Every structure is written in structure tokens, then in C-alpha cells.
Amino acid sequence: MEFRNVERPGRINMVVAESTGLSILYLVFRAVRKIKEKFDNFISLVCAIRYIADVNLVFNSVNHTFRDVKKERLLRTLHANGV
User: Fold this and answer.
1) How far apart are CA 32 and CA 23, in angstroms?
2) What burial letters (b/e) apply to 36-51, b meaning 16+ CB within 10 Å?
3) What's phi and psi for 82, nearest 5 deg?
4) What one-character DSSP code corresponds to residue 53?
């Protein structure tokens, strides 16, 4: 009985499988990292918001919030445009 047409996992097949698996693993880790970044930005914004009744302290609080929050320019632009 001869097995001429049976494909065995050779060197090239293993390299292709290994590189494909590593690429998929890299994309999964990258997606998880991006999701974590977005979540951290949202949490930092929520934690930075606080209520102050005094008008003079409100402006100081807003400046403090803009210094602490990532992407503060986007937040400032959205706030200025009435969102």
C-alpha cells in the first residue's frame, strides 16, 4: 500500500500555520488593548466630573477636569458646540 498523495505537515505548512496563528493572536491583543483604552478614557472622564455650587469654583473645576482627562480638546469642542 503506497501513500504518495497523502499530504504531510511539512516545513512550509507549519510556517504558514504558525504565522497565521501569531497574526490572529496579535490582532486579538490589539483589539483588547483598544477597548481597554476607550474604557479607561470613559472612566477617567466620569471620575473627573464633580458638582460644585459656587460659580468661581466651577471654572477652576472645569480647568482641572480638562487637565486630567485625555483628549480634552474633543470634550471642550463638543461642550462649546452644545452637545
Assistant:
1) 14
2) eeeeeeeeebeebeee
3) 85, 20
4) -
Q: Which residue is listed with cell 490589539?
A: 30
Residue type, 54: D
Nearest-angstrom CA–CA distance, 50 and 58: 9
Identity at 69, one-letter amino acid code: V
Cβ-contact 52, 61 below 8 angstroms: yes
| pLDDT tens, residue by residue, 15-69 | 777 788 888 889 999 999 998 888 877 777 776 666 667 778 777 767 776 777 7
Give the Cα separation of 15 and 75 in Å (integer). Answer: 47
Question: Could you tell me the CA-to-CA distances from 18 to 29, 54, 70 in Å, in that order?
Answer: 17, 62, 38
pTM, entire model: 0.42
